[in-house]
Amino acid sequence: MSPSPRLRFAPSPTGYLHVGSARALLFNWLVARRDGGEMLLRIEDTDVERNRPELIDNIFEMIEWLGLGWDGKPVHQSDRFDLYTAAAEKLLAEGRAYWCDCTPEQVQARARERGGPPGYDGFCRDRDLERGPSTALRFRTPDEGSTGFDDLVRGQVTFENAKLEDFVLLRSNGTPTFLLANIVDDADMGITHVVRGEEHVNGTPKYILIAEALGLGYRPAFAHLPVLVNEQRKKLSKRRDSVSVAGFRDEGYLPEAMVNYLATLGWGPPDGVEIRPLAEIVELFRLSEVTQSPAFFDVRKLQHFNAEYIRALDGEAFVDRARPFFVHGDGTEEVLRPIASLVQERVRLLTEVEPMVDFLRLESIDGAVDEASWEKGVVKLGERAVAMLDAAVVELASCNWNADAIEAALEAAARSAGFVKPDGTVDMRRAQAPVRVAVTGRSVGPPLYESLAVLGRERTLDRLRAARGKL
RNA sequence: GCCCCCAUCGUCCAGUGGCCUAGGACGCCGCCCUUUCAAGGCGGUAACACGGGUUCGAAUCCCGUUGGGGGUGCCA
What we know:
RNA-binding
């Protein structure tokens, strides 16, 4: 039996955690959970210039929000520079690396001059430079042979060493680069599976070459996940696309829905059932079944998942989950409770809950009447709307105040206002419109009778009269 | 430019040589239900990029073309 797998999620704190990273996190987590292994967390903060420490909290917070934990203590690369420096010195001592004093500008200029491919040309390879104030340490890539690996999702991938440029191991400010720190840590942490985004495929031969040069005898299994793309089929970018996990949380998405949706990007369960408990996904998931082509992050499908998850909540949980999104205080919860189940099956996002019951919370609906709804639901009906409004005021003034009684009263009103179908039955479909718009300000919303029951007789009658007065 | 990868409905997944007149999901359209809107039910729209092979047989294997993506940083 093979040793239990150790995976790692290794984000860098240069931006808020985004859905692409979250997907990589999820897949790592799934492999670890499924095979009884561990998933460690490593903060890749080697770039002191771009590093934003305050974002590390966001990463922790979002992983927690998603409900995906990690094992052990998070490893911060900024605490481990000695390790990387020692590795770099070993490579230098063995002639596998050398100092280079070319500035990025010089490298670029020479590339332009040659008219050849961009990238470093090995200018300092044999200059035997000593370490100086502005020297970077570069890895001496082999001139011959090839480096390849067997990717768990893409199969055999091979690169010719001659095509690999001599890349930087230590910056001139002495800090290690991702390439160096990444491999040193994976070896040190005993990582068995490197599961990451496709953007890392090209860096993998460099990773392997460093490991070999270090004589580590270490070689993890690799799995490169297809990238997540936007509608233009470009890799999701934090700048172009609003894809931060925190953003989705704030818009009212449930973490369970987000995680479930993310699992369907680049993978699908054999039985085709997409919406299902995480525990089942853990059982079903196979890295070898991950798709090889980019996946479009479809917010509309995410919304569908979210709506399904919201509807599946039990009543109390629904109110609990919606509460953080009430910006108008306790009043919202008070008016929501009586019709919570009716609202629950009508929202896709938790942020839609409060607006849906706004008309119940407000003292007056004046100024909150939707123009198009008024036109379509009231004005267009002309005299019939007037008749309905008048009849509704009469009937509702004296009936009992509960949903059933209100329904009966409104039916009676509709009948007296002439809303009767050819077969003699009441045409509530049309008759309810003027009442709904007059009372709720909109032509769509929760069921009317229940809403009026919550609103109360006084406010209902006030609003009906007010609407009547405007005609 | 060079390197690497990818290619089934608009989108996400099924499909691993015959079960495919290609299946499911989201979206969209229609009908039903119905006090609006949702939800639910029923039905529909829509794809194997192209060209060559291999094979009795190809969405599935091979080659090429085209298209797309990723990388090409003293970012990760």
